[in-house]
Design a protein that fits this description.
- The chain is mainly alpha-helical.
- It is about 70% helix and about 0% strand.
- It has a two-stranded antiparallel sheet.
- Helix 5 packs across helix 6.
Length: about 400
């Protein structure tokens, strides 16, 4: 492998972890875009840069849909252009990177970087270097603990499958230190998703039904009993409080005691539901902030968040890619969601697609929690999930192995 190829591979994979590397020169310049642009030019020079027809058709759909919605709903052309530009730069580059070098080679480089960054993250955490607000949550060189946890999940899955327990244990430890609820969810899914096979379902279905029905009976029989006394059932009280907060939140009404994370999720869910009801065909890519402002006056945020100027938290990303996607694309987003589910089922039916299976855990966390359309790592994992690039590699396979 030539020096140029080694540079392209290593710099491109390092770029996945560079969301927090920003240089200010007149405007904020991200290292990620500098690497992507330089490496795209190198791939063009090597005559290894093409545009896939299906890839282009999806982008054209986003453009046409966004322009039509701008005409009939609200003018979001500038925001649409910004989103399309970011999506194209990132997704076209990673498509060609994967097409040229293959997922196996690039994922191996990702595993090496993930291990080194996890190794650095622990002393960074205890020495309070680049720590998250408060300093009690690990985020390494990433911007937030949740982002750190999400990007490490594919490495955790593959290292576990390979029985590389030292590296697996180190990365899992850093995710636990990140104290990210999405990281914890990802770890649980890594344990339980591979177990969801017909023989296990039949084996444990009876146990699951007994536990579920017993829990439902217990809750229903104690639901109407008073829970405002100190000696009342704590479990039932917590469930009722959570249910009430959820129901009120979806109506746009929030009690002063609601925490910031819960408010962020429920307030953006409220905005999304309102928008989808009024605009089932969507409002165009990049339109979510406009929709947020349109429906925000219908909410009653808690006073303490108004005082802290945090009542519009996640206004730009909906707190969830799932919510933002539904608002922007409306019913059309269902096609992408159905494809994601069917593709996931297909991948986990086979035993020889560890790398592609690993990307599922990043993507599911991404759908639930992170609402940006083009963070540095997103299209690397998404494209591996969608396509097995190693199947049609010819000259690049010879190049990598030389």
């Amino acid at each position: 492998m030539g020096k140029v190829d080694k540079y392209i591979i290593n710099s491109s994979i390092f770029a996945l972890f560079t969301e927090d590397f920003v240089f200010h020169f007149i405007i904020d310049l991200k290292l990620f875009y500098l690497i992507v642009i330089i490496n795209s030019l190198l791939l063009i020079y090597k005559k290894s840069f093409v545009i896939n027809k299906n890839h282009l058709l999806i982008v054209l759909f986003f453009i046409v849909h966004g322009v039509i919605m701008s005409i009939f709903v609200s003018n979001v052309v500038l925001s649409l252009f910004a989103q399309i530009t970011g999506i194209c730069i990132s997704s076209f580059f990673f498509y060609n990177l994967l097409k040229t070098y293959g997922k196996e080679c690039l994922f191996e480089a990702y595993l090496k970087f993930a291990f080194v960054i996890a190794l650095l993250a622990i002393p960074m955490f205890y020495l309070r270097i680049n720590v998250f607000v408060g300093g009690d949550r690990l985020n390494g060189i990433l911007n937030e603990p949740a982002h750190y946890a999400a990007i490490m999940l594919p490495a955790v899955f593959v290292l576990l499958k390979r029985k590389s327990y030292f590296k697996f244990g180190l990365i899992v430890t850093t995710i636990l230190l990140s104290k990210s609820s999405m990281g914890y969810l990802g770890l649980l899914l890594i344990v339980f998703i591979p177990m969801i096979k017909a023989k296990y379902l039949l084996k444990y279905l009876g146990v699951f039904l007994v536990i579920s029905l017993s829990s439902i009976y217990y809750l229903s029989s104690n639901w109407d009993k008073p829970t405002n006394r100190e000696d009342s059932n704590v479990f039932v009280r917590r469930i009722k409080e959570t249910t009430e907060s959820f129901e009120e939140g979806l109506k746009g009404k929030f009690k002063n005691g609601v925490n910031l994370s819960t408010y962020a999720l429920l307030s953006n869910s409220f905005i999304s539901i309102k928008s989808i009801k009024d605009y089932p065909l969507g409002t165009g890519l990049g339109s979510y902030p406009n929709q947020y402002e349109k429906y925000y006056p219908l909410m009653t945020p808690p006073k303490y968040l108004l005082t802290l100027d945090q009542s519009k938290i996640n206004k730009f990303d909906a707190n969830s890619l799932f919510l933002r996607f539904f608002v922007d694309l409306g019913v059309f987003s269902l096609f992408f969601i159905v494809y994601f589910v069917s593709r996931s089922i297909k991948l986990f039916k086979t035993d020889n697609s560890d790398i592609q299976q690993a990307t599922f855990f990043y993507l599911i966390v991404k759908l639930i929690r992170e609402g940006h359309y083009f963070p540095p790592e997103f299209y690397f994992f998404l494209l591996i999930f969608v396509k097995n690039f190693d199947k049609d590699i010819t000259h690049s396979r010879e190049l990598v192995n030389s």
